[in-house]
Specification:
Number of strands: 6
Strand content: 5-15%
Distance between the termini: 30 Å
Strand order of the largest sheet: 2-1-5-6
Helix content: 40-55%
Order of helices and strands: HHHHHHHHHEEEEEEHHHHHHHH
Length: 384
């Protein structure tokens, strides 16, 4: 997903869920900030690099290619962008190495989705926004894994877009970093094929380009994890479910719903706006920000400011160390550390070390990175 959904659509969902304009802006900003909180940014404001929720292209290019480097990449991308659907998924006649990679494939309504939402409960708007980014990405990034793997994330080049009238158009790919997709010509950028199993080009949905990020895209393709059999990805339907699930989840987080259940969507609250939302989701455009913004401003009657990555940087930089955790970015950092810790621990406890080793603090004491010590005071079940 892109800023159009992570920022503007999240704002819309938050307003429908009952949040005020100011609260919805905080939720939406925190959602989109997940894509911006890199080590490069964190170092620029003298914050802990262990709270990184994304990586720049330059960081990925410079990343270590050894086991520790790959574990670091996996911790970030599996925790915040490609949340695994089933850490115990059955993979008959497969090696343990393959099973570990297969079990990191992202998808909605897995137990980690529930864990993510429950973890954000009572932790503030920054934690809620971060959780909404992860929940919505489980729909957009379905069928891809947040670890570099050719045998999982590779695809053939046989992509066909399905138009609303049922016509199928062959999709063409090019390898031009930084170039724009030509949607009208059905020409998209993607990563070049690399035969190395763990090359960074084999991370996530690079071989599918930005198709998973476009709400209008309905396409058939052949993924490696599926034995190069044909699969359908219906983004308009998936994005609508993501929106309805976010409304439901945010109602739970603000205390308006008693329970959070998987595979549950607040379609009743969204139904009055369904035609408007469907029109935005299905319009063939690279960026739907203007449409979502207009809808959000009609919902609240307020102006939605453009996303500014540096909006809260100075507040954090100028704060004294003893109050930094109470700043906007400070609260986001605590939420990020907690989420990464939780997911890493769940992956490790499933017998999978692709995201590294994790220790239960309440069983063995602290044995990890010192930046996680700040979580211990508030949660003796924290993973280091």
């Amino acid at each position: 997903m892109q800023a159009d959904f992570h920022y503007y659509a999240t704002y819309c969902a938050a307003v429908i869920a009952g949040y005020s304009h100011e609260e919805a802006l905080t939720l939406a900003y925190s959602d989109q900030f997940v894509d911006c909180c890199t080590r490069t940014f964190l170092k620029s404001i003298s914050a802990t690099p262990h709270a990184a929720t994304s990586q720049t292209q330059a960081e990925l290019v410079d990343a270590r290619a050894d086991v520790l480097g790959l574990q670091d990449i996996t911790r970030i991308w599996a925790s915040f962008h490609f949340l695994p659907r089933d850490l115990n998924a059955a993979t008959p006649r497969a090696t343990k190495t393959y099973k570990n990679k297969y079990r990191l494939i992202c998808g909605p309504n897995g137990s980690l989705v529930s864990d993510t939402v429950e973890l954000a409960k009572g932790k503030g708007l920054q934690a809620a926004g971060l959780a909404m980014h992860i929940v919505s990405d489980t729909w957009a990034h379905m069928y891809f894994a947040g670890t570099p793997s050719l045998v999982i994330n590779n695809t053939s080049n046989d992509f066909f877009e399905i138009l609303p009238d049922g016509e199928m158009r062959k999709i063409k790919f090019k390898h031009s970093p930084g170039a724009s997709d030509d949607i009208e010509d059905y020409t998209y950028n993607n990563t070049v094929f690399n035969p190395s199993e763990t090359n960074i080009l084999n991370l996530g949905h690079g071989h599918a380009g930005h198709l998973p990020d476009y709400s209008f895209a309905r396409y058939r393709y052949l993924p490696a994890w599926g034995g190069y059999n044909e699969y359908l990805k219906d983004n308009p339907s998936d994005y609508y479910k993501a929106f309805c699930q976010m409304v439901y989840a945010m109602k739970y987080l603000r205390g308006a719903a008693e329970h959070f259940e998987l595979d549950t969507y607040d379609e009743e609250a969204v139904r009055p706006y369904s035609e408007r939302i469907d029109a935005v989701l299905t319009r063939r455009q690279a960026d739907a920000s203007d449409d979502w913004k207009a809808f959000g401003e009609e919902l609240s009657g307020k102006t939605i400011p453009d996303f500014d990555m540096a909006a809260y940087a100075e507040e954090y930089k100028s704060a004294s160390p003893d109050v930094r955790d109470d700043t906007f970015i400070g609260r986001f950092i605590l939420a990020a550390l907690s989420q990464k810790s939780m997911v890493t621990n769940k992956i490790y406890r499933s017998g999978n070390t692709l995201a590294g080793v994790s220790i239960d603090y309440n069983k063995k004491g602290f044995g990890g990175i010192k930046d996680y010590m700040k979580l211990v005071a508030g949660d003796t079940g924290v993973r280091s």
